[in-house]
Amino acid sequence: MDIIADLMKQVATGDNLSLISKSVGSDEKSVQSALGMGIPMIMGSMAQTAQTPGGADMITSMMGQMGGSNPIDNLGGFLGSSAASGGSGMAHSILGSQMAPISNAIAQKTGLPPAVVEKILAIATPMIMGYVTKSMGGKQVDQQGLASLLGDQSKMAMQSSPDASRLAERVLGSQKDAAGVPGVLKKFLGK
Predict the structure, then answer these.
(1) 114-135 vs 99-110: helix axis angle to the nearest 10?
(2) Full-model pTM
């Protein structure tokens, strides 16, 4: 199962794309492009985080904060709720110090201001959390299982998104260490 492909079909087209675009105040084509690059980057960072001490617990806790709900099931309601504002904290927790480089790189590619890209990433992160939770079907997964699931999904996401792969390579080129997003992406890109 390709969680990211399913998620992209639901958020990067139609009414959902329109709702996200209105929420961030930008055009649908740019928002769609930003989602296409941002979602694989978030998934890659989640995969890397799940492999670190305490990382899987942090992700599981975030999934628990979703309360079993999936923002996509009622995106309009989600975007108008206080839960949407919590997405910024989730995005910063997952992306950490990579938030600014990723936002800036996506901004350069899409022409969107970095602040708008950050809003898009803040909306996308809870959607990914909700979608991953839903895909697990309520089953408890240990750290290794979660890391494996997220790693597999991240790899598929990078392979299916040439823009995200190029973005990852650009972010990698500007990073000196192999931690966080760059570390996981180096593995998937064979660097």
Answers:
(1) 110
(2) 0.82
